[in-house]
Amino acid sequence: MVQKNKTFKASWSYDPAPESTDHIQIKKKYDLYIDGKFVKPENGKYFETINPTNDEVIAEVALAEKEDVDKAVRAARNAFKSWSKIEPKERGKYIYRIARLIQERSREFAVIESLDGGKPIRESRDIDIPLAANHFFYYAGWADKLEYAFPNRNPKPLGVAGQIIPWNFPLLMAAWKLAPALATGNTVVLKPAETTPLTALKLAEIIRDSGLPKGVVNIITGAGKTGAEIVNHPDIDKISFTGSTAVGKYIQKAVAGTHKKITLELGGKSANIIFEDAAIDQAVEGIIDAIFFNQGHVCCAGSRLFIQESVADTVIQKLKDRMATLIVGDPLDKNTDIGAINSKRQLKTIENYIKIGLDEGGEIYQTDCKLPKKGNWCAPTLFLNLSQSHTIVQEEIFGPVLAIQTFRTIQEVIEKANNTPYGLAAGVWTQKGAKLFHLSQKLKAGVIWGNTFNKFDATSPFGGYKESGFGREGGLHGLKPYVKFE
Ligand code: NAI
Ligand code: MG
Questions:
Q1: If residue 37 lies in a helix (H) or strand (E), which one and from where to where?
Q2: Of residues 265, 285, 396, 467, which has the active-site annotation?
């Protein structure tokens, strides 16, 4: 766990050390990446992507409509004929090349990710971009070893995959989707989220430069309507979606009765459980990381904290003290802990949940940090005096807002933790291995972290139960949704 400097106060008076944007190439206008080149949208429409710290327009981005989606799918279908048949080792070489190019241009990716989406540069630089490169490296290795992944089953690619990704980890989610699809011999039409399209478009440039055969990867931009055109396109064989549970449900209905395969990675309301025998200081760092990482825009965020009653006062006091040291501000400042909220819309959602928390009788604690007038910001927030029935305990907020409850017994906390429509992740903090293993059996969650939180690795599968979706991404498991067996 990274120990953050505790002497900084949350304030804008702190002398910033912003990451330079020199030599970062951002175009004024981005076209669609279809069939190996950038092309204008058929209807000539563009939309703006803004910098959430100051509401300024960064660039205009093409709005793909039905005709463009159709063109991208045709390119992918055409490319599938040869891509699915080339030597698997050759497929691997291209994927390795993409991985290396991401590494080489990692600074550029990190700065653009933070500019377009608002996340702290320390996170994009140390987490998002390296993990994205690792994902391509990892799946490149599988390309010529599929017969070992699925012994005696003769795995074959599905065809054209439509991939729709969210705005919270833009490049990383593109990597999670593209790498396994390519390694298994599929071709792709990928759509990034409308508030954060820029790193996916930078990735399109890299893919073009890598010499990947044209049409194997097509990257098209647009909002929900463009996503729906992909979902409903008759010549797509597989939909992979990460985003809200509401859209996930819509997609599941839309593909019902078609030949399309589907994986959904949706929302969460993950429990973070602190037992009295935990290493308390480490656990407090873990709570901070679990809820404030990426402004809480994390599907597996530890947004419900359960503290064992005997240590509750201590943990809450330490948590408040630690929260007061968090620096909220410029995402490009290397010392920033909490950046900008991704969009006005998301900020409204979060503020609305804070209001509901108060209206329903929750006790709020927010750090006393000065938030800039322009842009989208939310102070780190926690709520006490809550029970299972409170809205902010049940619903995903997707912001830096922690809902705290206490418990006495293991049985009680297992019941409370599982009492949610979601089942994505959980964290357990205890010095006792047996307790950890017991909870890992009893908690209904796809990922369970022991004495840590929000740790990701290309080799380990990720995905949920219940309304958190189905299918796994990462690891050997992540190959399966992209193959069929003959
Ligand atoms: P969203 O689910 O609308 O957006 C995710 C992606 O789906 C974007 O690329 C969007 O353009 C696309 N999309 C939207 N409507 C579509 C449709 N009908 N068909 C196909 N694609 C469609 O998420 P939104 O509205 O940006 O965020 C709302 C809430 O969703 C958040 O407050 C958060 O609770 C949750 N969320 C969860 C994410 C996760 O990682 N599980 C990621 C993003 C949001
Ligand atoms: Mg943006």
A1: strand 37-39
A2: 265
What domains can you pick out in the chain, each with its CATH number?
4-15+268-450 (3.40.309.10), 31-266+468-485 (3.40.605.10)
The confidence band for 81, taking pLDDT boundaries of 50, 70 and 90, is: very high
Task: Give the per-residue pLDDT at 17.
Answer: 63
Q: Which atom of ligand 1 is nearest to the CA of 268?
A: 41
Known active-site residue 299 = yes
The C-alpha angle with vertex 401 and arms to 370 and 328, in degrees rounded to 5, equals 30
Q: Alpha carbon of 252 to those of 230, 260, 473, 480: distances in Å?
A: 13, 10, 18, 19
Residue 314 near residue 92 (C-beta atoms within 8 A) = no
Q: Give whole-number Cα distances, 108 to 19, 124, 224, 235, 482, in Å.
A: 11, 10, 28, 35, 30
Per residue in 270-307, pLDDT (tens digit) is 999 999 999 999 999 999 999 999 999 999 999 999 99
Atom of ligand 1 nearest to the CA of 230: 20
> How many beta carbons lie within 10 A of that of residue 341, not counting itself?
26
Contacts from 77-80 at CB under 8 Å and sequence distance 24+? 77/159, 77/160, 77/187, 77/235, 78/35, 78/215, 79/35, 79/187, 79/213, 79/214, 79/215, 79/216, 80/157, 80/159, 80/160, 80/186, 80/187
